[in-house]
Every structure is written in C-alpha cells, then in structure tokens.
Amino acid sequence: MKRVLLIVVCSICLLSLHAQFRLDYHASYATYNMSDMKDFVHSVRTREPFRQFGMELVEDFPAYVAHSVNIGYRLSHHEFGVKSGFYSTGGKLSVGDYSGKINMTFTTNGYREALYYRNYFYTLEKEDALGILKDKFSLWGEVSPALIISTLKIKTTLTDVDMQEVVEEPEYNENAYSLLLQIGGRFYINRMIGLELSAGYDLSFGGSYEELIGSPRSDWSGLRLSGGLGFTF
Questions:
Q1: How many domains does the chain have?
Q2: Which among 29, 30, 154, 204 counts the fewest CB atoms within 10 Å?
C-alpha cells in the first residue's frame, strides 16, 4: 500500500511540474577515424598469400549513415534519458580477371548504448491566436557517455568459372567507450512534433581486437551531422 501511495504522489508531482516524455529518431552523416583498421587491412594485403595476387583496396572504411533513438524525460530546460545508436562501415580488397575473382570484406558495426543529458539554453516563444505562449524554436546542448559494442566480420569470396566458395571467419567482438558532445536546434511543428538538426563529435576509446595482428580497434571517433523528428507526450 505504501508503494502504491508513493507512485501516486510521484505521478502527481511530475504532472504538476509539467514534465514531458520524449521520443526522438535521428539519422546522421557519420565519419569514423578507423586508422587502426586501415592499417590492419593494409597488413593483410601485403602478406602472403594475398600479396602474390596483387589485391587492390576498393573500399577504405568510408563515412556512412548512422541511426539513433532517444527515449527521454524533459523537465523545464532539462532533458535526460537513454540513447541507442548503430554505426557501420567497412573495408574491401579485390582482384579479378577472366579466370576468376577474389573479394575480401571487413565489415565492422558499432552498437552504441548510452545515457544522455540535454539542456535547452534558449527558447523562442510566440503567442497563438488565443494569446497563449507556445514554443517555436529551441537551441540545446547535449552530452552522452556510452558503451559501444563493436563487431568485426571478415569474409573471403573465391569465384571462378566453375564454382564459388565463401570463407567466413568467426565474428570478433570488443567493447569500447565513447563521449558524444552535440549542439542542435528544434523547430516545433506543433505541440507534439518537432524537427531537429544538430552537429557534434563522438570521441571513442578502447576496444582492441587482441586476436588480430597488431591488435587493431574499431575507432568510431568522428563528426556527426544529424537530422530527425522528435515527439513529445
């Protein structure tokens, strides 16, 4: 009974403080450092038996689209909650002629599980037809520490006129950490829906693949340019 009363009291307090629940989705243009992984792919290319084949680097861990979802709670100028994100990039070696082809792909993914705190440091308000002030635009800053679960999958495909053989190594897994700093703006379409744009930098550290030559790591550090939709309940 005491627990029920406590929940009721807390709910009333939250409603009286005009608390809001938030759900956001963002797609980002994301660059990644990946210098270790680039060196690792180069070392594979220059080692036997791949060296004698003269394999060419055709993909070198480029920038790619990242995705994230926020579930949070806003109270006045403060918002905090949990954030889940997905990063992906890769490298590729290839060589081929009339008799056959060899492709070797290195695909690395990052699953970012984080907390976040956001501060709305500026809000523009305008009166509606009834003279009620409503938010039209806000600027915010955000900090988000995270655990990144990094995976690496290496696949070699051999193809000739008679057959195709695929060789897949076991997936490698490591944990890394990161700190994302962002600044952005929210344009309020209506009371429940907002359009968001932001820019920031994600600093990643740790998470080496000890089983591989040189113990490379998936370094997810890089620029984040994001856009998305936010929903308020």
A1: 1
A2: 29
